[in-house]
Amino acid sequence: MQELLKIRGLTVRFYTYEGVVEALTDVDLEMGRKETLGLVGETGCGKTMTALAILRLVAEPGRIESGAIYFSPDGDKEPVDLLKLKEAQMRAIRGSKISMVFQEPGAALNPVYTIGNQISEAILVHRRGEVAAKALSSVTRKLKEGEGLLGTLFKPFRRLQRRLYSDISRSERAFIPRIIGRIPLIRGLLWRLNSEAAKIAVEMLKEVEIPDAERVAKQYPHQLSGGMKQRAVIAMAIVCYPKLLIADEPTTSLDVTVQSQILELLDRLKDEFQSSVLYITHDLSVAAEICDRIGIMYAGRMCEVGSAEEIFKKPLHPYTRALLAAVPEPGKEPRPISGSVPDPLEPPPGCRFHPRCTKALDLCKYEVPGMLEVTKGHLVSCHVIEGGRVAGSD
Ligand code: SF4
After folding, report:
1. What is the C-alpha separation between 178 and 157, in angstroms, rounded?
2. Residue ranges of the domains in the chain?
3. How confident is residue 189, by pLDDT bands cut at 50, 70 and 90?
4. CA-based angle 317:325:379, to the nearest 5?
5. Which of 3.20.20.150, 3.30.420.10, 3.60.20.30, 3.40.50.300 would CATH assign to domain 3-112+220-291?
């Protein structure tokens, strides 16, 4: 597996008035290129926190205490530790190399701007140089065509525009255009940037299979259905063809038919842009549909990681087995997991699953199990794994 992301010993804590919340403890995880990895577990197990830590967006009073997140977007270069980057370097990665689609599309969109405006804004932030190059070629063409009285009148104005677009296309942070872009009366000189970005925004909407994209670009979020909003959010997330797309329960609020369309769309985009997808879900059936590999999390720790096939056909960790047994199936009585998720302020010592585990030993109550590679790529953190099986299981 060619590695895109490698997380080692990631620990995140929240310092609250009630005490210290153990959000993530010593999490290890790898992701390959062009792979879809599912993070599965109950609410509060640390799935979203892992994603936020990758983006370094853990909000106060949370703190990334220790660990490393190695990211190698360009296979031929040395991986960088995201936790060691300066904030400005991290900003350049967010949205361009790694982007995220959130659970609630309504909350991710600004209600007072049109869909087209919001996508254009993302394009102007992340692809400004490319947009300026398009604007430059359009102005240059107009200058060549410029004949007659109007052409002559507009010539000095277009020459100035050409100079500005050429500056931006050489350096996205060119000083003069940046200053001009901030002065209300003369920033109109750069209007072609917005119009080129708007054209790309419509292309992005077409890319995510939104019918009548030109019309939708002019609409506001409240005028769209849940599925259409989620497509628009995905369009915004992929404007830079990110190497890693994090999808945090993107289909939870959608009905089943729209859900499967969004899953198909993510799968197609992943292949088309050669990206990897980190898919966060509590729904095992969704993970089965889309993921190549799956990581099962419990109370801020990683329990089991393996190929989707191994996780569904040969689950080893008692928690994975309990999760699978709890999935309702026609004609079968679902078996809910007894007990409840531990309080993150006071997680149980030893294996955090021990108060609910039917296989627990005395050792489990005080010693944290390590990660054991049972078969190639299938890792399990449990004291009673013997010869690749949970002792006492059938
Ligand atoms: Fe159960 Fe012990 Fe394994 Fe934890 S380590 S899952 S308590 S058997």
Report:
1. 18
2. 3-112+220-291, 116-200, 296-390
3. low
4. 20
5. 3.40.50.300
18-27 pLDDT per residue, tens: 999 999 999 9
- 350 pocket-lining for ligand 1 (C-beta < 6 Å): no
- Its pTM stands at 0.88
> Of ligand 1's atoms, which has the minimum distance to the CA of residue 318?
6
Residue 353 Cβ contacting ligand 1 at under 6 Å: yes
**How remote is the CA of residue 361 from the centroid of ligand 1, in Å?**
7
Atom of ligand 1 nearest to the CA of 352: 4
Residue type for 378, please? Answer: H
Is the CB–ligand 1 distance for residue 210 below 6 Å? Answer: no
- For ligand 1, is residue 364 a contact (CB within 6 Å)? yes
Closest ligand 1 atom to 319 CA:
6
Neighbours of 135 (CB within 10 A): 25
Exposed e or buried b per residue across 38-62, where buried means at least 16 C-beta atoms within 10 angstroms of its C-beta: bbbbbebbbbbbbbbbbbbebeeeb
